[in-house]
Amino acid sequence: AKKDKDTPTKNDKSTPVPRVMQKRVEYDTNGVTVSIDVEKDVANHRVVLRVQKRGKPESYSRNPEGDVRAIGVYGSLQFPLVFSSRDQVADVISQAELMLALHGVACLPESAKCFHNGVPLHEQMPASTIHTGDTVFFVVSPEALITKPTGPARCTVPNKIDFTVLSKLWEPKVLAATTLTLDVPYAVPFPWLLIVGHKCYPFVTTVTFNLGAMIKEDDLTAFLVYDNFPALKTFVLDCSGKPELLNDAYDQWVGS
User: Fold this and answer.
1) Lower Cβ count inside 10 Å, N or C end of the chain?
2) Half-sphere exposure of 47 toward its Cβ, with a 13 Å CA cutoff?
């Protein structure tokens, strides 16, 4: 019988390295069951994570600190609003836009408008006009909603906090992208993936990380806890620029 070229014979003392290694991992987080098929592609120096999700998040809270606990409403959606009475209304709107993103509502940054007791609240107003237990309504104009996909998008992650660079992650063409490539040339000392997670990317099916430094497993699973990447099916950890990262990129998912 014909043998596969990678299969050693009984007399072959060498141990070939598999070109592709696969393993499935599964875990539960925040009420969501996540199954991931982990594939190590040795020839192309990359790890591919194919994701399936079941269930809905039990909680959408990011555990913000604050002495005011109000209720936010957007259409038929209700969500908790936690903020400090020393904040401005702009901070309340930012918190609301995060809640919208985590629920799968895709809109441009700073596009939500805030109403309390039927009165519009401007961003520079003090948030102290809103009290614990109050209901705050939010609207987003139709032109600010992300409703049509664009195509591939690519961004570079800086090695220090630079919002002129990071804000590119929130540009309309990126929010509406179908695939997203993120160049990570350095070890990043701040939680930049939280900035990505502050918005909803409704059409992204694949996120590719071009790795010059490792990304922690916990950082990637943050993409899967909520609904701000509702179409996401695949992560690619591309180590071709730094092949020595390949084994660690695979082992952190399946264990060494």
Assistant:
1) N
2) 27
Give me the DSSP letters along 7-28: SPPTT----PPPSEEEEEEEEE
Q: What is the pTM of this model?
A: 0.86
Distances (CA, A) of 227 to 88, 174, 194, 198, 234: 27, 17, 14, 11, 15
Buried b (16+ CB within 10 A) or exposed e, 68-78: bebebbbeeee
Mean pLDDT by 10 residues, the chain (256 residues): 40 50 86 92 95 88 81 96 94 94 94 96 96 97 96 89 81 96 84 82 96 83 86 96 93 80
Burial status of residue 226 (CB atoms within 10 A of its CB: 0-12, 13-18, 19 or more): buried
Q: How far apart are CA 235 and CA 193, in angstroms?
A: 14
